[in-house]
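Continuing the batch. This is chain 6 of the set; chains 1 through 5 are on the previous pages. Same settings as before, nothing changed between runs. Recording input and output for traceability.
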Amino acid sequence: MKITLVTETFPPEINGVAMTLGRLVDGLAKLDQCVTVVAPHRPDRIASKDDAFEFVSMPGCSIPRYPELKFGLPANAKFARLWKDNRPDIIHVATEGPLGWSAISAARKAEIPVVSSFHTNFHSYGQHYGYGFLQNMIFRWLRYCHNRCLRTFVPSEDIRTTLLEKEFENVSILSRGVDSTLFGPHQRDPELRQSWGASPSDPVAIYVGRLASEKNLDLVIKAYDRMRTTLPSLRLVLVGDGPARQYLESARRDIHFAGMQEGVNLAAHYASADCFLFGSTTETFGNVVTEAMASGIPVLAYDYAAPAKFIEHQRNGFLAPFGDSTAFLDAALDLARFHHKWNEMGSSARAVMLPHSWSSIVHGYLQELLTISSIHGNRSF
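Output for chain 6:
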């Protein structure tokens, strides 16, 4: 089967961990599917002879306040030429920017089946970046884009319910997997902990993700401070980079900033900590939550998306009602008081994640693509 994935945010390296699109492409290639990725050019993406897919580069511009990310420019004519010479069986548009919209329009004109996926709550980012007044308009645009596709894949039931209530059509769940071979307690590294200034007996809380305002890092830090009233030796490690890092580093010298980590290094950071704090309310799923759980550490998060699906309160982690910051801080204090059970809770967290491999997710995804292609491949829509 010939599958084309169109995205504005494809990672520079196909095996970048926690990148859902990379996992799907890698998994499809392993199933001997012919995969083409279309994305804006990135100078840090170096083609490799080991790439199991074809990469087509498109012009793009940096996203304001996210210079490391790009959005693609409209490319209807380029898509028409590309797909005239090399027609795919199905097209998956993973982002709703100008490039993604061009792909949807060109696919429909060429009568090629096209599906989409809803990965990020971009419409809810406005309150953090000064364009909250555009939120309703952005949501209407997202709905218009996705409803021109034969299927919209979402990662969780709560996102599916939300989109259906907002009159999105043909919404289907495509969950997320986790690599429990990479992420696990076996990656714990005493020397790494020592580099954080933590002794063998010091508890360590960790956060992994973008250091940006939409990730609610202020709440994570408040939770850390609340936990220290019970665990004075607790340390906090922030893994990732982003626009908030410079300010946070200057304001909180008691916090260790580990920067971007990938692969085995990232797995070692998870496993070398003792609990995971995640205060974001803008996720469609939350891959970092499942990676932390697979690493054998309990997670504190809001009760939605991946946490709602996998965390059982006070058994393998802690949950707070969505958006209730007071309850989140109270749960952080409870997490600290349960520190003697963290190992037991972490083991339970890992056990929950073991059946959720990426291979099973990719197999299900491919079967749905084959079904859609067989039904719609030779008809106008």
